[in-house]
Amino acid sequence: LKGKVDTSNFFVVNEPKLASIVSTTPAGDNRSLNQAVKGKLDTSRVKFERGYAEIDKGSGYLKLANGVLRGPRIGTTFQGTLYDQNNNMDMTGTFMPVYGLNRIFGELPIVGALLGNGRDRGLIGVTYRLKGNANKPLLDINPLSVIAPGIFRSIFEYR
């Protein structure tokens, strides 16, 4: 089964996996995603203005492509396998804090094209990978991606 999910103006409330993603300390690092972007993100009630993903659902697996969540406080892009037949996850993307403010750079002519890196990307972002058991995946972040302006951040994306 293949299709697209496209929704707008919704809230994610008390979602434990969202809280886990921003607060988990990655292997080999002593900072969580929240700490890496020097933020204090309240994940108890998060508003999103848009959610989009292309889905591929088969027997025992769910794959997502070209995913994006946009909100005033948090933005993220994502793609990969949410779960497979062995309940493993392998997702990658870019996490963007203070997304509403962060996106202003993307709207500026010329500067936005260079620093904003496209419609759903911001000036400041952290590339990440979630891999392992889908119930408790390991988070890996690339701290160098924080200092790379939008268009150059793809150098630090996980493949």
Describe, in plain words, how this protein is organized in 3D:
It is a single chain. The protein is 16% helix and 43% strand. With 159 residues, it is an alpha+beta fold. Strands 1-2-3-4-5-6-7 form a seven-stranded antiparallel beta sheet. Strand 2 (45-58) and strand 3 (61-70) form a beta hairpin. The model has no long low-confidence stretch (mean pLDDT 76).
Query: How many individual domains?
Result: 1
Q: Rough shape?
A: globular
Order of helices and strands: EHHEEEEHHHEE
Quaternary assembly: single chain
Mean pLDDT: 76
Structural class: alpha+beta
Strand order of the largest sheet: 1-2-3-4-5-6-7
- Output the radius of gyration: 15 Å
Features:
159 residues, alpha+beta, 7-stranded antiparallel β-sheet, 5 helices, 7 strands
Quick gist of this model?
It contains five helices and seven strands, in the order E-H-H-E-E-E-E-H-H-H-E-E. By secondary structure, the chain is of the alpha+beta class.
List the helices and strands and how they pair.
Blueprint: E1 2-13, H1 16-23, H2 33-36, E2 45-58, E3 61-70, E4 74-83, E5 88-97, H3 99-102, H4 104-107, H5 111-116, E6 126-133, E7 138-142
Antiparallel strand pairs: 1-2, 2-3, 3-4, 4-5, 5-6, 6-7
